[in-house]
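FAQ: What does the model actually see?

It sees only this:
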Amino acid sequence: MKLAGFWLYHYELPLTEPLELKGTTLRQREGLLVELASDGGAVGWGEAAPLPGFSREGLDEVSGQVRALADVMVGRGVAVDLPDPYGPLARELDALDLAPSARFGFELALWNLSAASSGKTLPELVAPRPRATVPINALISCPDRALEEAQVARAAGYQAVKLKVGTQSVEEDIELVRAVRGDLGDAVALRLDANRAWSLGEAERFARATADLRLEYVEEPLADPARLPSFARDHGLPVALDESLAGMEPEALEDHGYARAVVLKPTMLGGISRTLRFARLASRVGMRPVISSAYETGVGTAALGALAAGVGDEEVPAGLDAYRRLAEDVLRPRLELPAPRLDVRALFEERREVERRLLVPVG
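And it is asked to produce this:
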């Protein structure tokens, strides 16, 4: 397969309600879509959408990097070992030191193009025998609606719920978590995400007050991540890594065996191949790899579903519920989310088109 064409587009989609992200208020989601074409007429789409408040790169930087990468790649053949996360293409991209979202966008377009050219689906490129369906965790972001949303999630059949904490006092969070745990019952896993909101003292108070609860994990509880290893060992609180993975090499996971899980966001990690390396190494050292979104459109979210269907040694609920915050999507028809389970096989068997009227070409 030879790359024969490249186009770059900007999108801006409204959200269902304002989204607060580390001091940034978003009312729309912006990003770039990458379109690649082969000499055989196949097309592959990718998404490069840095997340304000979390990504270090901006859209202008991403646009420049993607266009520069296309200048190098168009006209070249794409090797058959593309799905190998340690293969020649992955190593070439490693050497370029691309911004994470830029690499994800271009790499995803390549993977989708390879799937379209080979007659395989994206999940089949990720793993020889991908899971037909994957469970999804419900996402609860607003403390004021947490109990109501927890009850709805339990009634809808969700196996896991992720609750955002750290936006109010620790004592209020403790009370909220205990109430949500009670409403969910023991059959539903409860994940917490503190986004590095707590001092060591606050995290210790939280750990002591919730020691009797069955929590699956708490993502990034400490404002000072250097203290996370000793905190996890001293207090027995199951923790997960998220922000700590940014800029980390996958092989460094071997030094973080205290963590129960790693939350893998390709937009933040730098592409599919790096995410697959993280997932493999996490499984090897006994951590659960959890594929999760960074508020991507259907283009990126569908790819995350494919990854969730193929990584890990066991079925793990994926963090794709953020997709419901998009009031509009660039894909038609929309993905069948929110839902407690995503039918990955049906997702990639149904034909979907990118709604070009929502895109603005980037010159």
